[in-house]
Amino acid sequence: MNLPLKKWTGKINTVKIGRTAEEGGSRDRTITIGGSNCLPMHNFEGEIPHRPVIALEVTDEYPNDWHPAVIESYPEIMDDASKWANHISQEYNVDLICLNMRSAEKRGMNESVEFVKEFLRNVPLPIILKGPGESDFQDDFLAKCAEAASGEGLLLANAAEDHYKTIAAAAIAYGHSIIAETPIDVNLAKQLNILLNDMKVPPDRIVIDPLTGGLGYGLEYTYSVMERIRISALKGDVYMQMPFINFIGDESWKVKEVKIEEPLWGKIKWRGVYWEVSNAVSLLLSGSEIVVLRHPDSVKLVRRAIDDLITKTEAV
Amino acid sequence: MALTGLQIYKLLPKTNCKECGYPTCLAFAMKLAAQKEELSKCPDASEEVKAALGAASAPPIKLVTIGTGEDKIAVGEETVLFRHDKTFFHHPAIGEILPDTMGEGELIKRVNYLKSLDFERAGEMLKVNIIALENKSGDVETFARAVKTVSKIWNRPIALIPHSSAALDLAMKETAGNKPLIIAGSGSSEISAFARTAKEYSCPLMVCGDGTLEGTLKAVDEAKKAGAEDIIINPASDTLSNFLTHQTVIRRAALDRLDPRTAYPTGVILRGDDLPLLAPAAICKYPAVILMENPPDELYISLMTLRQNIYTDPQKPLQVEGLVYPIGEPDENSPLIVTTNFSLTYFMVSSEIDSSGVTAHLAIIEAEGMSVLTAWSAGKFTAEIIANSLKEMKIAELVKHRKIIIPGYVASLQGELEEEMPGWEILVGPQEASDIGDYFKQVW
């Protein structure tokens, strides 16, 4: 049989996160994502120079509202984001840390920026810095952090349709990358990338967050939007050639099917882990380059999935 | 591959007899190409054109059915690689492999457990579809006994993984009428014998390859030659990356009609530590039958939900009509809750209200079938839209109190909505439907 292998003209941009001392930052490594010229994980017909990566999330305040099964997986360090992040970096094989500054507004601008500076002094991994949510406060906060962390190569979350200018300008000025978030829509994702391009944000500094509908709660929309964006990218649309990030943790641990007591469905912890893993595997197959997870046991399983998927195979 | 009008014209009698209702054979050929006419209207159609048109219109992947009755499994006849190109039509069957070495009591317990996993989610019954019995003992009679035990209490389809054709023959005496899926394991030297049995009883046959594409297609060929018609191809890939490669290549080859040996649905048998990684991949990337050995119980709920998601028809907007829905038998004192018309949102919110024991009015606002946050960011769920819809729904006549509960995710609409609806108090409900029960306890 003549093998039906598919070649594409387009290629996904690479994005480098984190800068080491030689590169003007203070991270202990850099992480590069993207660069593939084939459908997700189709290394039997194309090249995937950089493997998808895994981040675990830490919060700036003790995450009271997180699922107890996640909280129980850590020692009592979750009220100290730096300790928590270093524990993760020592115990689990993650590529980067997502610092979720969800209480920044409550804490106040100056104190929050100091918090981030302190965190960067304590934690050597490349960092995704997530603000408290789309608002003028977040724009200012991310811009101030960008300046304070000049040259560190952070990945800033997030730019959105009405909130991209301040963040884009700060990312350009201080050498960071940004996450462009749009609500599960191919055209809106492209539109935001065009706006960022108009502001002269280099294409290799943008990561698309297509917004993750969690398993059971709209995953199919995210899955298909990602497939469609990726196919456009491979066909050569330069405004679609950015790698993807998916925030999976929150979407997995808040769902009813994980939270309710139902002995038939087994232990809640493993239900949550498999929920997270099923989300991650399906989104890796539709193009995710960064999966942000929550439970350490999910990391182990998703790591194994990536190790296996990235292994070069021949179509025989 | 579909034929063009001109290609069909060349095969027609070119008599322009008009019997078909068209002035010329060419005009008729054009209609045939567009699939707007039937060839049977041509009185002089040759066998050649019938064969050519028949082959071109046959589905690229054969429809295969397993089992009988209302729980029978129909898979195949898929037409796309990506669900957004049309839809994935037939849900894959999910099932568990049970060894015949289990004692009878244990076997019955497990079958009953798998039955008890049925549950309704977003208006659909999700269930485990098939049980595969494996002849681990190697013993012919032990196998037949296990098949008998399971057939008695499991009235959904079963699959048989016999060690030998002798084991298959005896087991078929217990269950042939149920049209089981016969599985010829990897490296089986008896594919032809199994295929003949499948033919004899008109049962589907899963052909397991050797982990390579060529080896797998050779095994399919052998089964076809021995008379098997309803085949499920299992390339027996040993890793996730081989799995993705094999499934993608077979699906593409089938859709492009590159090789008749690929024109069947595929299947997988998952065993070992990587099962929780392979199973979700199998839902996304094509197998029509997914059989698992020793899956963790905790995996089932996510797998069945993932299947529901991936096999949802993307062409159908998932919307419910914008109305006030009574949950239970609400009266003029019952709470009034507002949310969007995304059907999943509706199902989640209504089922949570229902299970909280509180009766309520659920006002569904037309928001192009988007969930609350998405609709809000897209400007489809604004204070003005909500206020206008509620006025049209005449909620002032529906309830005596003057309170409206809005989703926690749109707490920011509270002030604006109070301005739009003078005299009404806007309460901010929980963000997640699952917290509605607690919310009622505290607030209502």
Task: Walk me through this protein's architecture.
In chain A, the strands form two sheets. In chain A, strands 8-7-6-5-4-3-10-9 form an eight-stranded parallel sheet. In chain A, strands 1-2 form a two-stranded antiparallel ribbon. The mean pLDDT of chain A is 96. Chain A has a single domain, classed as Alpha-Beta Barrel (TIM Barrel), CATH 3.20.20. Chain A has helices spanning 68-71, 81-91, 104-107, 109-122, 136-148, 165-174, 186-198, 219-234, 249-253, 256-259, 268-285, 296-310; strands at residues 14-17, 31-34, 53-59, 96-100, 127-130, 155-159, 177-181, 206-209, 244-247, 288-293. Helices cover 40% and strands 15% of the residues of chain A. The relative contact order of chain A is 0.16. Chain A has 316 residues and is α/β, with parallel strands linked by helices. By secondary structure, chain B is α/β, with parallel strands linked by helices. Chain B has three domains: 5-57, Electron transport complex subunit B, putative Fe-S cluster (3-methyladenine DNA Glycosylase II, Chain A, domain 3); 64-310, TIM Barrel (Alpha-Beta Barrel), CATH 3.20.20.20; 324-443, Rossmann fold (3-Layer(aba) Sandwich). Chain B is 39% helix and 16% strand. The longest helix of chain B has 16 residues, at 240-255. Chain B is flat, with a radius of gyration of 28 Å. Chains A and B meet through helix 8, helix 10, helix 11 and helix 12 of A and helix 8, helix 9, helix 10, helix 11 and helix 12 of B.
Q: Strand tally of chain B, please?
A: 17
In round numbers, the mean pLDDT of chain A is 96
Main beta-sheet strand count, sense and barrel state of chain B: 8 strands, parallel
Query: Could you say how many structural domains of chain A there are in total?
Result: 1
Per the principal axes of the C-alpha atoms, what is the gross shape of chain A?
globular
| Helical/strand content category of chain B | alpha/beta
- Following the backbone from N to C, one meets helices and strands of chain A in this order, namely EEEHHEHHEHEHEHEHEHHHEH
Q: Helical amount among residues of chain A, as a percent range?
A: 40-55%
Distance between the termini of chain A: 10 Å
Order of strands across the main sheet of chain A: 8-7-6-5-4-3-10-9
What is the CATH homology-level superfamily of chain A? Dihydropteroate synthase-like
What fraction strand of chain B? Answer: 15-25%
CATH superfamily of the largest domain in chain B: Dihydropteroate synthase-like
Strand order of the largest sheet of chain B: 10-9-8-7-6-3-12-11
